[in-house]
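Possible regression after last week's pipeline update?

I re-ran a chain I had predicted before the update to compare outputs. Posting the input and the new output here so someone can diff against the archived version. Not blocking, just want to make sure nothing changed silently.
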Amino acid sequence: IRYAWTDFESASVQMSSPYIGAAISTGTSSTAPSATFFVAGTHGLLLVRSSATTNSGYRWVTEYSDRIVGQADLYFRAVLAISDDMASKTVRFGFHDTTSITDVVDGTYFELTPGSMVCSARSANNSTRSSHGTTFTLTANTFYIFAIYWPSTGSINHKIKSVDEATTHLNVDKTTDIPT
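New output (post-update):
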């Protein structure tokens, strides 16, 4: 499996290679999250936020997006906690090609439904998007492991597990709208 990783020890856009960070409108990124998110012994906590400005946020992307579509044997893994104030926002993470507020053209990713904490497995092929019918409602301020495994060009596995990996909350395979 080809991979790139970081522990996000710094919010600096130069210090988390191969990822490049940038604000969308007036969003922010900080390595000083509130006590709500502090977990003893944890390092690499990065807080990304939108602001009061409409359609603001923050993105972390790689320079490798052109090498993702149509590939197989790719793996995405992130440990995230979504705060309760994000419930009204659109949140997307995984493999996708958008770098702004626009919806995904090609990719496979998780999406938090605006106005709720419902998380769904989604994919998009040439702007045709779909969600798997099974979703999971996240608990605010709780860490989860989000994983996407793209073993072939015809199927993509999306999984959400507890941070201790003891419980699998979502484990679905998407076979529609796979990027080509």
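Follow-up from reviewer: compared with the archived run. The chain has a mean pLDDT of 77. Marking as no regression found.
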